[in-house]
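Q: Sequence in, structure out?
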Amino acid sequence: MSFCFLQGNAQKTATGTNSIQRPKLVVGIVVDQMRWDYLYRFYDLYKANAGFKRLLGEGFTCDNTFVPYLPTVTACGHTCVYTGSVPAIHGITGNNWFDNNTQKAVYCVEDKSVQTVGSSSVAEGQMSPNNVFVTTITDELRLATNFRSKVIGISMKDRGAVIPAGHAANAAYWYDSRTGNFISSTYYMKDMPDFMKAFNNKKLVDSFYAKNWNTVLPKEVYEKYCDTDDNAYESKPFGKDALTMPYDLKQFQGKDYSKVTSTPYANDLLLELAKANINAEHLGKNDVTDFLAVSFSSPDYVGHAFGPNSWELLDTYVRLDQTLGQLFDYLDKTVGKDQYTVFLTADHSGAHIPEFLQKHNIPGGRWDDGDIRKELNDYLNIELNKRLHQEYSKVNFISAVMEHDVYFNHALLDSSFPMELIQKLTIQYLLKKDIVLNVVDKHHAAEATIPAKIREMVVNGYNPQRSGDLQIIMKTGVMDAGKTGMSHGVWNPYDSHIPLLFYGWGIKHGTLNRETYMTDISATVAALLHIQMPSGCIGKTIQEVMK
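A: Exactly. Output:
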């Protein structure tokens, strides 16, 4: 079958009757660390003509969408959204993992074979999608149009831009906090386009710093919806003495370009970058469908530092609502109302800060991965010296603990120590901890005597080259985090229940309450565009969404 229906007079796709109908542009929006309940918890604070109420009032919301694997972290989430697959297949098993073949720690999008484009920073730009095993929906769009569709990914985070853009993207841009520039890599281009050079030369970050971070709503609103503003269990990203809102950001002008990521202004910065790309690349003006992948990273930085019940988090979402409204207004003017399709989702959700829970008599706790590794190695050294009646110098039996994934040091253990005994001792030690619910042998996770939902998430997250040997399942409210702030990564609904909304061309207005999954997003977009779903996709089309 020929793909010629994507060519020729395809500009009429949104209205024509003699060709396959398609939107002019797809905009994929991932809000990093957005809990599903933020749609409704802050509903009364969102503006009628801005973002969230437009999505809910005119679009389609799938209110029971879940992440179907472990760990529920950023890189896995972006990969799942755009591949319709799970770590067992697409290979992105975490933001970081310990490679069992090379015996080295790996960052999800690191690629030392490429170089930074757009700044003097070296490591910040050595990124590509080469660690992803399968195609993305953006790759499939490029394939379906003989690479005439334009695909661009943008984010404050490298992984939030690189992975959604896919292997065959025209460009991906992410933020370099050392220089305040958006950068790329030689994987995509030899030099920055002139419009991106002009964008970086504006140094918009400094103009946002000049505004400081004041509350956008009256004080009484924050007191009604939030925890108190000054809490010892919140992090202090703007300095140890910056305890409450408002925050003085002018002090960072021209000096520290990293601080903007922990403010709502990073979302506004990304909006301006999106507009610049839409304009310069003529997205939505081509004779085939284009794709802009946008990942708003700021909510994750704010969430980690201050938690879901903070003044800063509420302020961020009220402002993000307005930012989204401005994006939709711009798309209406440039691409045309009802000529583009949007989906909005999250890469994961986020837990309440443990001390906040404890303050209200709700279970919660902390246990850092680094502490787990140290405790296990200390315990195993003592026990094996005792049981084997030999004196060993200190041995690292555990190579790594990442996102509650325990990696045994197989290079050492398989030849020198009784592996079965070491695994047994490790599990016994972990299960004695009050904060541990269970421990799963990942090599035999399908047989684990745990609830089917959790078992499936462990299986879906297991890749033999990149996963650990044991999965620690913590009790509810317990997270892998430092001494302040919060984190995410576990199976519980507070980390795995995400928003999913569709809006615009080809989308019905409505609400769906049956259970859907992150894997269904790319399958649904593929059906909407009449193109092949990604090569590792295991999701199903959400038929109720489409007209």
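The first strand starts at residue 25 and ends at 31.
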